[in-house]
């Protein structure tokens, strides 16, 4: 079989010769008891760069020993890209949300042999799920592999935005010492109202991690958490996103991107937020309206916006979120720490081992299976596609 693997570029200085840490901490289980990936074997050292082209997710030996062909590229945007050309006779395509190979309907229809799209990570919105269902292409992701990585990033972003870390760090780096400049937008998080839109694996973990900061916690989700969890965290449930945003100082967004959540934070919803609130969005860029966010930061309706997700990716060089005031954006990194890479590379291998051995893939990894939403996909997504406009990614210039 032919496996096409689309990964981000290697470091500009080449692959590292050594790493900051020699080993990774051992994680026994995910917080809800789910087991970490269980491949029969791995051919990489956890803690090394695996998500870039030379890292190859540690898959080459395994695939070639079994007689398969592996094509790895970072060239993914536009009809002339290597990935678009290699896709036409590929059986399996692997892509990561950080550097997504947008599998639009047109691309899925260009690949008659395509059987499965694997997301090495979480979030399969870069695949036109409706087209995948229509063409019987299974879509799977490595559920939970980087949920905790992201919730750590959320805590970092909440603290850094509310305390205005970025301004202070810039002053220190530039040789300055104006304390008033450094603190004129700096607050404590203590006592604030913090709310998550969606309390799934990431949202709930972010709530748990924020609890020791003595804040008031809120959530909105389609399904209510258990009474035990609500009590443990002293949580306030909201039955609409409008109700949540009206009272929260910080709103963190943790839903998948699908037709129900696309453009959810538009001008109208942002105008219903508490004045001067902060948004932390590590879910997907397209859940927030690009221009509405920038305008709200200009007017003061929002005090800050941070996260790591953009639309499309890579973000065009002139994407307004690169230059708007009071933002704390990073490129899409929160779910691809070296720790997370080891888990999703192992999970990708587990999925491939199951597929080749004709064994069922874990239910929790399934998004689309047998022409319909399945597993985690049936719980967390809705039918349709959120890939429109992805062709703009080719405007990015290195
Ligand atoms: P989960 O499936 O555990 O949680 C998703 C939650 O979103 C579920 O509780 C689901 O509710 C809820 N939800 C779905 N649609 C809606 C809606 N319309 N309104 C309110 N709630 C909704 O996934 P994770 O928490 O692990 O990940 C969430 C998302 O975070 C991913 O889909 C991905 O887009 C993003 N992510 C980003 C990463 C990064 O590197 N920045 C890495 C990993 C993930 P219910 O099931 O109750 O219906």
From TrEMBL:
<dbReference type="InterPro" id="IPR033689">
    <property type="entry name" value="FDH_NAD-dep"/>
</dbReference>
<keyword id="KW-0520">NAD</keyword>
<feature type="binding site">
    <location>
        <position position="146"/>
    </location>
    <ligand>
        <name>substrate</name>
    </ligand>
</feature>
<dbReference type="InterPro" id="IPR018247">
    <property type="entry name" value="EF_Hand_1_Ca_BS"/>
</dbReference>
<comment type="subunit">
    <text>Homodimer.</text>
</comment>
<feature type="binding site">
    <location>
        <begin position="201"/>
        <end position="202"/>
    </location>
    <ligand>
        <name>NAD(+)</name>
    </ligand>
</feature>
<dbReference type="InterPro" id="IPR029752">
    <property type="entry name" value="D-isomer_DH_CS1"/>
</dbReference>
<comment type="similarity">
    <text>Belongs to the D-isomer specific 2-hydroxyacid dehydrogenase family. FDH subfamily.</text>
</comment>
<keyword id="KW-0560">Oxidoreductase</keyword>
<dbReference type="InterPro" id="IPR036291">
    <property type="entry name" value="NAD(P)-bd_dom_sf"/>
</dbReference>
<feature type="binding site">
    <location>
        <position position="122"/>
    </location>
    <ligand>
        <name>substrate</name>
    </ligand>
</feature>
<feature type="binding site">
    <location>
        <position position="147"/>
    </location>
    <ligand>
        <name>NAD(+)</name>
    </ligand>
</feature>
<feature type="site" description="Important for catalytic activity">
    <location>
        <position position="332"/>
    </location>
</feature>
<feature type="domain" description="D-isomer specific 2-hydroxyacid dehydrogenase NAD-binding">
    <location>
        <begin position="155"/>
        <end position="334"/>
    </location>
</feature>
<dbReference type="GO" id="GO:0051287">
    <property type="term" value="F:NAD binding"/>
</dbReference>
<dbReference type="GO" id="GO:0042183">
    <property type="term" value="P:formate catabolic process"/>
</dbReference>
<feature type="binding site">
    <location>
        <begin position="332"/>
        <end position="335"/>
    </location>
    <ligand>
        <name>NAD(+)</name>
    </ligand>
</feature>
<dbReference type="InterPro" id="IPR029753">
    <property type="entry name" value="D-isomer_DH_CS"/>
</dbReference>
<feature type="site" description="Important for catalytic activity">
    <location>
        <position position="284"/>
    </location>
</feature>
<comment type="function">
    <text>Catalyzes the NAD(+)-dependent oxidation of formate to carbon dioxide. Formate oxidation is the final step in the methanol oxidation pathway in methylotrophic microorganisms. Has a role in the detoxification of exogenous formate in non-methylotrophic organisms.</text>
</comment>
<feature type="domain" description="D-isomer specific 2-hydroxyacid dehydrogenase catalytic">
    <location>
        <begin position="60"/>
        <end position="361"/>
    </location>
</feature>
<keyword id="KW-0963">Cytoplasm</keyword>
<feature type="binding site">
    <location>
        <position position="380"/>
    </location>
    <ligand>
        <name>NAD(+)</name>
    </ligand>
</feature>
<feature type="binding site">
    <location>
        <position position="308"/>
    </location>
    <ligand>
        <name>NAD(+)</name>
    </ligand>
</feature>
<protein>
    <recommendedName>
        <fullName>Formate dehydrogenase</fullName>
        <ecNumber>1.17.1.9</ecNumber>
    </recommendedName>
</protein>
<dbReference type="InterPro" id="IPR006140">
    <property type="entry name" value="D-isomer_DH_NAD-bd"/>
</dbReference>
<feature type="compositionally biased region" description="Polar residues">
    <location>
        <begin position="382"/>
        <end position="398"/>
    </location>
</feature>
<dbReference type="InterPro" id="IPR006139">
    <property type="entry name" value="D-isomer_2_OHA_DH_cat_dom"/>
</dbReference>
<dbReference type="GO" id="GO:0016616">
    <property type="term" value="F:oxidoreductase activity, acting on the CH-OH group of donors, NAD or NADP as acceptor"/>
</dbReference>
<feature type="binding site">
    <location>
        <begin position="256"/>
        <end position="260"/>
    </location>
    <ligand>
        <name>NAD(+)</name>
    </ligand>
</feature>
<dbReference type="GO" id="GO:0005737">
    <property type="term" value="C:cytoplasm"/>
</dbReference>
<dbReference type="GO" id="GO:0008863">
    <property type="term" value="F:formate dehydrogenase (NAD+) activity"/>
</dbReference>
<feature type="binding site">
    <location>
        <position position="221"/>
    </location>
    <ligand>
        <name>NAD(+)</name>
    </ligand>
</feature>
<feature type="region of interest" description="Disordered">
    <location>
        <begin position="379"/>
        <end position="398"/>
    </location>
</feature>
<dbReference type="Pfam" id="PF00389">
    <property type="entry name" value="2-Hacid_dh"/>
</dbReference>
<feature type="binding site">
    <location>
        <position position="282"/>
    </location>
    <ligand>
        <name>NAD(+)</name>
    </ligand>
</feature>
<dbReference type="Pfam" id="PF02826">
    <property type="entry name" value="2-Hacid_dh_C"/>
</dbReference>
């Amino acid at each position: 079989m032919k496996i096409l693997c689309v990964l981000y570029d290697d470091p500009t200085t080449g692959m590292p010769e050594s790493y900051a840490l020699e080993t990774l901490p051992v994680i026994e289980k995910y917080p809800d008891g789910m087991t970490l990936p269980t491949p029969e074997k791995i051919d990489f050292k956890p803690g090394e760069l695996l998500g870039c082209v030379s890292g190859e997710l540690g898959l080459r030996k395994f695939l070639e020993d079994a007689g398969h062909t592996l094509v790895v590229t970072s060239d993914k945007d536009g009809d002339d890209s290597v990935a678009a050309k290699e896709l036409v006779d590929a059986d399996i395509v692997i892509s990561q949300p950080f550097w997504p190979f947008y599998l639009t309907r047109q691309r899925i229809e260009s690949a008659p042999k395509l059987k499965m799209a694997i997301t090495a990570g979480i979030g399969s919105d870069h695949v036109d799920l409706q087209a995948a269902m229509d063409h019987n292409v299974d879509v799977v992701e490595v559920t939970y592999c980087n949920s905790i990585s992201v919730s750590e990033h959320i805590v970092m972003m909440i603290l850094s935005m509310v305390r205005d870390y970025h301004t202070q760090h810039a002053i220190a780096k530039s040789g300055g010492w104006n304390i008033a400049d450094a603190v004129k937008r700096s607050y404590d998080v203590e006592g604030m109202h913090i709310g998550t839109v969606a309390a799934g694996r990431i949202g709930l973990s972010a709530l748990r991690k924020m609890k020791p900061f003595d804040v008031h916690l809120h959530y909105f989700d389609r399904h209510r958490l258990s009474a035990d969890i609500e009590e443990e965290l002293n949580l306030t449930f909201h039955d609409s996103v409008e109700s949540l945003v009206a009272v929260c100082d910080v709103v963190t967004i943790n839903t998948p991107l699908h037709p129900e959540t696309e453009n959810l934070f538009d001008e109208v919803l942002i105008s219903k937020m508490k004045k001067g609130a902060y948004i932390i969005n590590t879910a997907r860029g397209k859940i927030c309206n690009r221009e509405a966010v920038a305008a709200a930061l200009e007017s003061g309706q929002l005090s800050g916006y941070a996260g790591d997700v953009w639309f499309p990716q890579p973000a065009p060089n002139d994407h307004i979120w690169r230059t708007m005031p009071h933002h704390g954006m990073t490129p899409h990194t929160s779910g691809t720490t070296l720790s997370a890479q080891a888990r999703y590379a192992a999970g990708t291998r587990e999925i491939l081992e199951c597929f080749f051995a004709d064994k069922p893939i874990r239910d929790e990894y399934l998004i689309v299976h047998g022409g319909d939403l399945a597993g985690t996909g049936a719980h967390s997504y809705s039918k349709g596609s959120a890939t429109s406009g992805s062709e703009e990614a080719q405007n990015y210039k290195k």
